[in-house]
Amino acid sequence: MEELKRSIARTHELPTAVLEDFVAQWEIVSFPKGSVLSVPEKTDNYLYFTISGIQKAYYLVDGKQSIISFTQPNHFTCAPESFLTQTASKYYFECIVDSYFYRLSYRKFVQQTSKHKAIQDFLIKSLMGLVNNITERFIKQASFSIEEKYKDFMHGNAHLLNTVPHKDIASYLGMNPTNFSKLFNNVLID
Prior knowledge:
Elements: H1 2-11, H2 16-23, E1 27-31, E2 36-38, E3 46-52, E4 55-61, E5 64-71, E6 76-77, H3 80-85, E7 92-95, E8 99-105, H4 106-115, H5 117-143, H6 146-157, H7 166-173, H8 177-186
Antiparallel strand pairs: 1-8, 2-7, 3-6, 3-8, 4-5, 4-7
Helix pairs in contact: 4-5, 7-8
């Protein structure tokens, strides 16, 4: 649970007793490659913290996946709008490889946020970070050329190339797989 504690502390420093109580509510779970943890029209009842593995969030357009995010170790994950509002998810969340998580149920989450104001403060800071990340991604998707998107991805996420199918990375970057392949084979990354 040390990874979970460190991740929480990086976002918001909690009193030791609150942190210990909060992390004690999480359980370890594992899912094999291909497991779908969020499904449209169903409510997410768990918040996950990835211990190992990589996952993707996507929605379907005419039966084709449109990737909206990847999650990896030491990050919280779920369909946050579904989990926090207890409404149906709008997209899928799937394990790309075998994955291990810490998992917190919505019921325990509500108990903890009711019991500890510091958990509410942590949640607000986490959500602000999520909004900032979404805004940054939106700006890049709207304004970067495909080469700039590729280079930006490679600077922060090149390690995913050996695990994530290139067609999924192309979808995430908003380009077709052929263009991704051309960039992969021709563009040098400093």
